[in-house]
C-alpha cells in the first residue's frame, strides 16, 4: 500500500483495531456543527488532545465548561471505491493483487475489533478485510471504474476525508475563566467509576436538552470550523436509544424483544465498519440508526431489556449482521447485493410469508416483467396490513406498502445534475438494468441529451432520483410526455421502505400478533441463528 493510500485511513480506523476487555463501547456522533457546547462534569477526569498531550491530569470538577474551536483548516476529501469485503486477509490480498495486475490502484484494509474473553479463553475476533481502489480525483473517474468492474464486483463509491479538519480547540471553565487548548480534538475521560459528563443543548425529539454520559466524550473540529461531539456509551444504552427513536412501547412485546436482539447484533457486527476515517462508529441519522432518549426509560422497554439485554445472534460462529428495515414490500433482499457483505453474515432474501406452498408467487423478481407485476399488485404478504388483518396504530407501515412519487422532468434534471456532478442535459428516459432478488433496482441508466449516467447502488439510485430519498429502490417508472413529445413528468410507483435487508419490521409485527415468540421471529428472517449473551470462547476460523 502506498503512503497516499495509508493517509486515507490514518488515525481513526486504527483506533478501532483494538482489543476490548469487556463489551465494546459505541462511539456515537451526538451533535454536529455547533459554535460552542457547554458541559458539566461531576467527579474526577483527565483531558487529552489528539497528539496525546495530557492537558489536565486526574482533576476533580463540579463546574460548567464551554468547548469551542480556536482555529482550523477544513478536511480534504478523496473518492475511493469499496470493491468487496472478505473474511480472510489472504483472500483480500489475492483480490488486491489481481486488481493491481489489471491496472487499478488497489489495496485492502483490516476493519473491526477483538474481544478479550475470560482468562484462559483467548480472543474473539470480529475482523473483516475490505478491498478498495483509489484514491481517484473525482466522482466521474470513480463511476468509470465502477462500470468497468461490473460483472465481477458490485463496488460502491465513497467520499472520504483524506485529511480530517485540523486546528485547535479550547475548553474554558465558565466560573473561574481558566482554559485549556489542544490539537485536533479534546477528549474528556472519567477517571472514577461514578463520574459523569452532562452536555447541554443536544437536539432530541424536537427539543434541545442535556444528555449525561458515563464514559468519555470528544470534541472535534467540523469542516465549517464548528464543533461536533462524539460520545462513548455501552451497547445496551445505545440500543435503548435506537428503540426509543424507532418504536412505540405499545408495539407487541415479542416484536420489541426481537428488534432489540437484532439491533444489538447489527451494532456489534458493524463497529468500526461504516464511517471510514471518521472518529465515530455511528451517526444518529437514518444512514446508521436513529437515536433518541427520554428522561426515564419506559417501564416496558426496561422490562424487555432485563429479559434480552446483552443478547445477540451468531450465525456460522460469526456475529450475525441482523439488519432491519421498515417494510420489505413482500420480499427481503440479499445482503451481498446491497451492502457488499458475504451472505455468511445473514440469511438470504425471501418472500415474507409464513407458507410459500399455498400462494402463487412470481418465479423471479429479478426479472423486469415479474417485478413490475409484483409492484403493481397487493400480494398477501405479512407486511400487507390491509389484507392480513393487523390492527393498531401502524400507519407508518400501511402508507408505504405501495407508494407513488411524481416529479416533473425539470425538477429531476436539476436533482440528477446536482447529485451526480454530471452535466446530463435533458433527461429523456430512466432505464432499469438490473434488479435483486426482492425486485429492488441495483442498476439504472439515466439517459440525457448530453450524456448518460449509470447508477449502480441501491442507495445511490434512491437518493439521486429524489430531492431527499425515495422510500425504496423497489419501483417501476412511467414517463408522461408533453405536447412536444418530450418527457414532462416521471412517475415512480413503488413498494416497501428501506434497503430490504434482514428483518422486515412490519412483517415482524404481524407475526408477533399471530403469537410468534421473539426467537421464532428472528429465525424467520435470519435462518439458523444462535442466541447468545457472550462471545464464543474460540476465535472464528480464518476463511
Q: Describe the largest sheet.
A: 11 strands, antiparallel
Helix fraction bin? 10-25%
Low-confidence stretches: 1-16, 539-543
From the alpha-carbon coordinates, what is the Rg to the nearest angstrom?
A: 24 Å
Structural class: alpha+beta
How would you describe this protein?
This protein is an alpha+beta fold and 543 residues long. 24% of the residues lie in helices and 36% in strands. It has 15 helices and 27 strands. The strands form 6 sheets. Strands 2, 3, 4, 5, 10, 11, 12, 13, 14, 15 and 16 form an 11-stranded antiparallel sheet that branches. The longest helix is centred in the middle third of the chain and has 17 residues, at 253-269. The radius of gyration is 24 Å and the shape is globular. The two termini are 22 Å apart.
Topology:
Blueprint: H1 3-8, H2 12-16, E1 19-20, E2 25-34, E3 36-49, E4 54-61, E5 64-73, E6 76-86, H3 89-101, E7 106-116, E8 123-136, H4 139-149, E9 156-163, E10 166-173, E11 179-183, E12 185-190, E13 196-204, E14 207-213, E15 217-221, E16 227-234, H5 235-246, H6 253-269, H7 299-308, E17 312-315, E18 318-319, E19 324-325, H8 335-339, H9 368-376, H10 385-388, H11 395-398, E20 402-408, H12 409-420, E21 427-435, E22 441-448, E23 452-455, H13 458-464, E24 475-481, E25 487-495, E26 503-504, H14 505-513, H15 518-526, E27 530-532
Keywords summarizing the entry:
single chain, 15 helices, alpha+beta, disordered N terminus, eleven-stranded antiparallel beta sheet, five-stranded mixed beta sheet, 543 residues
Amino acid at each position: 500500500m502506498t503512503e497516499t493510500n495509508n493517509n486515507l485511513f490514518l488515525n481513526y480506523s486504527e483506533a478501532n483495531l483494538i482489543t476490548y476487555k469487556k463489551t465494546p463501547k459505541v462511539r456515537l456522533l451526538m451533535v454536529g456543527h455547533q459554535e460552542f457546547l457547554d458541559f458539566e462534569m461531576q467527579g474526577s477526569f483527565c483531558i487529552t488532545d489528539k497528539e496525546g498531550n495530557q492537558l489536565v491530569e486526574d482533576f476533580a470538577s463540579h463546574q460548567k465548561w464551554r468547548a469551542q474551536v480556536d482555529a482550523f483548516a477544513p478536511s480534504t476529501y478523496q473518492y475511493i471505491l469499496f470493491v468487496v469485503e472478505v473474511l480472510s486477509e489472504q483472500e483480500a490480498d489475492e483480490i488486491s493483487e489481481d486488481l493491481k495486475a489489471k491496472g487499478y490502484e488497489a489495496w485492502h484494509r483490516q476493519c473491526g475489533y477483538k474481544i478479550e474473553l475470560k482468562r484462559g479463553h483467548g480472543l474473539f475476533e470480529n475482523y473483516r478485510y475490505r478491498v478498495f481502489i483509489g484514491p481517484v480525483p473525482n466522482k466521474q473517474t470513480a463511476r468509470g471504474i465502477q462500470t468497468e468492474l461490473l460483472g465481477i464486483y458490485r463496488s460502491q463509491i465513497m467520499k472520504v476525508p483524506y485529511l480530517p479538519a485540523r486546528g485547535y480547540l479550547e475548553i474554558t471553565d465558565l466560573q473561574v475563566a481558566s482554559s485549556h487548548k489542544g490539537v485536533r480534538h479534546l477528549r474528556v475521560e472519567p477517571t472514577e467509576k461514578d463520574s459523569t459528563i452532562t452536555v447541554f443543548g443536544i437536539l432530541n425529539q424536537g427539543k434541545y436538552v442535556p444528555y449525561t454520559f458515563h464514559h468519555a466524550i470528544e470534541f472535534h473540529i467540523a469542516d465549517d470550523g464548528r464543533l461536533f461531539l462524539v460520545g462513548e456509551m455501552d451497547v445496551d444504552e445505545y440500543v435503548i436509544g435506537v428503540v426509543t427513536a424507532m418504536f412505540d412501547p405499545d408495539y407487541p412485546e415479542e416484536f420489541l424483544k426481537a428488534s432489540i436482539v437484532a439491533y444489538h447484533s447489527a451494532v456489534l457486527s458493524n463497529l468500526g465498519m461504516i464511517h471510514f476515517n471518521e472518529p465515530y462508529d455511528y451517526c444518529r441519522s437514518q444512514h446508521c440508526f436513529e437515536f433518541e432518549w427520554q428522561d426515564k426509560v419506559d417501564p416496558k422497554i426496561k422490562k424487555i431489556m432485563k429479559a434480552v439485554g446483552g443478547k445477540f445472534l451468531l450465525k456460522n460462529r460469526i456475529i450475525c449482521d441482523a439488519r432491519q428495515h421498515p417494510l420489505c414490500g413482500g420480499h427481503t433482499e440479499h445482503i451481498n447485493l446491497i451492502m457488499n457483505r458475504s451472505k455468511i453474515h445473514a440469511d438470504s432474501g425471501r418472500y415474507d410469508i409464513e407458507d410459500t406452498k399455498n400462494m402463487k408467487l412470481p418465479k423471479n423478481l429479478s426479472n423486469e416483467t415479474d417485478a413490475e407485476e409484483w409492484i403493481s399488485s397487493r400480494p398477501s404478504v405479512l407486511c400487507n396490513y390491509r389484507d392480513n388483518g393487523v390492527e393498531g396504530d401502524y400507519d407508518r407501515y400501511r402508507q408505504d406498502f405501495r407508494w407513488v412519487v411524481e416529479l416533473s422532468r425539470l425538477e429531476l434534471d436539476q436533482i440528477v445534475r446536482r447529485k451526480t456532478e454530471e452535466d446530463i442535459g435533458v433527461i429523456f428516459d430512466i432505464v432499469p438494468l438490473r434488479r435483486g432478488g426482492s425486485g429492488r433496482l441495483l442498476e439504472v441508466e439515466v439517459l440525457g441529451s448530453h450524456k448518460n449516467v449509470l447508477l449502480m447502488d441501491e442507495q445511490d439510485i434512491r437518493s439521486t432520483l429524489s430531492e431527499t430519498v425515495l422510500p425504496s429502490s423497489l419501483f417501476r417508472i412511467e414517463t408522461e410526455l408533453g405536447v412536444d413529445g418530450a418527457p414532462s413528468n416521471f412517475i415512480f410507483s413503488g413498494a416497501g421502505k428501506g434497503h430490504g435487508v434482514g428483518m422486515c419490521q412490519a412483517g415482524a409485527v404481524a407475526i408477533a400478533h399471530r403469537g410468534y415468540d421473539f426467537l421464532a421471529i428472528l429465525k424467520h428472517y435470519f435462518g439458523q441463528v444462535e442466541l447468545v449473551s457472550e462471545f464464543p470462547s474460540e476465535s472464528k476460523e480464518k476463511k
